[in-house]
Amino acid sequence: MQTTEYTTENRDKKYQRKQRGRILGGLVIVAAGAVLFAHKAGAVLPEWLFAWPMIIIAIGIYSGARRSFRDFQWLIPVAIGGLFMADRFIEGFSLGHYIWPIIVIAIGLSIMLRPKRKHDCI
Question: Where are the transmembrane segments (predicted)?
Fold first, then answer.
């Protein structure tokens, strides 16, 4: 009998988290739509808000909102978009010179920080 209560309670918590994630994800999309609507209506907004790296950042924020920001995977697209946006805000900074070293470092970090699987252990 205890296991039934536990699974029902666990299922309810999982459902509530999923609902919260859907609401947050929907809010991110509504906010993006409102910004686009304001831009089309003639509101004066910063030009960087409509740059292509903002799409990557928005995808990361949407992904994080869908999962209630429980994990850190959403930070990857936000960081990538942020790096490409840095060209616009930091005088003399050019990501082009650093892109390959950043990719190599990211690959190395992903290999080092990858969670171990059961079959990886001998």
Answer: 21-42, 48-65, 72-90, 96-113
Supply the range of the domain harboring residue 59: 2-120
Query: Furthest-apart CA pair in the chain: how many Å?
Result: 66
Mean pLDDT, residues 54-63 taken together = 89
What's the CA gap between 60 and 79, in Å, rounded?
9
What CA–CA distance (Å, rounded) separates 122 from 112? 18
Would you tell me how many other CB atoms lie within 10 Å of the CB of residue 55? 13
Residue 2: Cβ within 10 Å count = 6
Q: How many domains does one find in the chain?
A: 1
Q: What is the pLDDT of residues 73-103, one digit of tens each?
A: 888 899 888 888 887 888 877 777 777 888 8
